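We read letters as residues; the fold follows as tokens. A sample entry reads:
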Amino acid sequence: MQYRKLGRTGLKVSVLCLGTMTFGWSADEKTSFAIMDAAFEAGINFFDTADVYSRWIEGNTGGESETIIGKWLKGKPRREIVIATKVRNRMWEGPNGEGLSRAHIMTAVEDSLRRLQTDYIDLYQTHWPDMDTPLEETLYALDTLVQQGKVRYIGASNYPAWYLTKSLWVSDVNRISRFECLQPHYSLLHRDEFERELMPLCRDQQIGVIPYSPLAAGFLSGKYTRDNRQPDSTRSGGLIQRLVNDEDAYTVLDEVTRIAAARGVPVPQIALAWLLANDVITAPIIGARTVEQLQAALGAETVQLTPEEVEALNRVSQKY
């Protein structure tokens, strides 16, 4: 496994990050443990979750993923593992049950620490912007957690460029902790939103980038074809439904599949290698509901695409 610094910090993380949204949803505790064991044995030291995973599933209250990770962490070398989680979404009833107010953050972080069974979170991320709360309030609350040692670094997810820029300015003028990492939606089939403004901003400000859905909700995994547009899958959201009916998306998949076949590697590794060929990317977040799915992605960091292969992938995916 290869490792990169998280933005301008000295923290080194594996170039593949294990996303754990499936834990407590489509992967039960035993399977989740097996996935984490396989990831850790392969050299992945970076695990991403959120307090809300998997509250949207009927019968779940949120925190299932964090709880499973916390159980797995017992007996593991905590200092060798980088845990990232998020705050923002509704976790309890009442007017302060969601958001990025100081009131919500200070309560939510204690809940996450308890579920994770740890006394610090390596990377604490705001899951979405909260336009009802002043940036100063959010950033001062996060800075307090850094000063207390409960959080080591802070990051943002799903922030537009203007809001991330404003956040960096607030931190700078007040000399408080700043966002060192951004978690955007970015893949061969979702490029423009990140590349137009966020990518040059992150490069200029040395912000680490850990894109989610790098395989476009599984479309770039190789399991979808023009003849099999609805394989057995837990994915039923809007993104995958749009892609399976988009002929241009299959043109992108054809090129990814062609390069994978020529190199003799699984299809997902080419989509991930395209991301890793970009020097602004720190670590794509790979999700898995089985060990086999994880293993199909492992090894992507060893695939060095040629400039011609990168250009071919850029060309077929330019509309996205």
